């Protein structure tokens, strides 16, 4: 296998657009074919589970972004012909923020967004 | 040497579900120590997974991935008894490879 | 039945009231959020339970007359007293205490008597809420639930006994007797199921399934370190999977025993298909008639059975040829004076309490006004706790969590140590004194306000607003996140975001607070009560609430 490179520019992007450009995309359409599986309220901002699934054919790449983190991109994944269009990991979030999933399928980029709330906790019924 | 990963690979209907728990501090580079000095970033950068010599998954992590990273992916074409191999490399070029048999 | 009728007449009517004829062939009995109240108590329902947006004026966000009207209950009746705060003192004096496991046991037996095969469901918040539950590590409630004949339960506050203790009870005491269910609790490593997600039982020839839904936000609302290896969450997708799975296995009736809180249950019922009824708890709403929620697969009933052992829900289904043809639901209030105590249960409760009676019975003070807790913003017992915190800790501001459990006291009653523990008995009772900047105070209020008033129920945690002492503020519940709180003042002066204030509080969820180990709140309140001896009728420190006028969840 070829040596895996780390896309420094993408990981330094501050916004969705900057990350998208660094990943080689120009625009990303919203897509209902992408599902973000993340909690509505994070149990622990330091460990927020985020899963991304798509039903799109020829999924090539999936990226997980946290809008309000110092750098937006948390992780990105390259799918081979054998990889199922799914990935899950856990990310750090300093505050309530949108989480974006960027998906490249058949050469085009798509995006889906979900808000995850980070709270101080306490109280209850 | 880096601590071992926990890797679990399970096959159903020709699809192998791989779950990995790595052991890594994933230092962000944003934190300061008690003397006020910034703790340099130290995090995994790349992860690759192979099965029967073929790459089945590849990922890149930034410092925002949680400490002791978790990763879950699925691939086609594996069978029970196959060996899945997972390798990570971090920004200090430390690396670790662990394997699991598909069950 | 008018308020001042003769007691005997009331009792005859009550006996008839509890004669609930069997309907159909599938039966579920449900109690929830008893908060370890083994003995009869007084319990005042809230006068403020606001709903906004889609929840405006809808069940469960109805109080007083609005609730009576929506559920067709006549004013000044036994049921009106059971479900509302109206005429609380007079009605409580007439009808007496509510709940108590010995009385509940008699009622359960009566219902099971003409409902063969009926399953008794415990919605959780059972092992916490009293001195004896705290001191016995929940063992008193475990024994009482086994004696009561609970078949199935799902948890919330149970988790504050810690993972090890919960597992011990489930694997030893409950083994082969009570199914402890939670489809939404997984391990933190590989996401494996911790408890059984559901059980399938055969009842009168019909296969029925019960799926458990634990409180989704346990590691947020309560200390995370107590469940360090487990993760929760709502998990709609997995719920749908479980429903499909039990249907595929032949279940003709599917019940979710839920601790989501009612607003979350209502949303879940609109999204997940194939559930016949969600029998819920956590938000402590005493809801007399089920809400029918339409979804793409049909209709799901949503019920909520109040708190503190005050109610028993009875849900009957008529199942014909594998299909539900009809149903009946009744939320029976448990009036202790009108249901004889079960002898065996009474003996068990006595045995549990004997070692602690002296400690529980200590008279600390007498109250001149009603003491209660429920309400979105404050309750008189919370005000008492705040006053105690500020006095004993010499703090200018106090915070007390918006818990919904805690019993009520009538004017003239002695406040005993037991009553104080009914409001405070938790496994992280430490008081804290923090030098806090004004902007941090605002951040805290905003954060909690969003947990209560976020327009999307999945972003709510189901408690009430933090109670505050000293500080005044204005709240706009319909405002955006971080923009609901304004005009915070202390002694008439605006709070300075950069100034530091001395703030007392209790029930910290952070692990560092455990190490610091401040004096338990019950000791602080007891100290204060012994000192003042008489508690005057409480003037509640309430925020100015914008846009609440005319809300059916607000008693003006
Ligand atoms: Mn409760
Ligand atoms: Mn609860």
UniProtKB/TrEMBL annotation, chain B:
Residues 6-100 form the Sulphur oxidation protein SoxZ domain. It comes from the Bacteria. Pfam families: SoxZ (PF08770). InterPro entries: Ig-like_fold (IPR013783), Ig_E-set (IPR014756), SoxZ (IPR030995), SoxZ_dom (IPR014880). Gene3D superfamilies: Immunoglobulins. This is Thiosulfate oxidation carrier complex protein SoxZ.
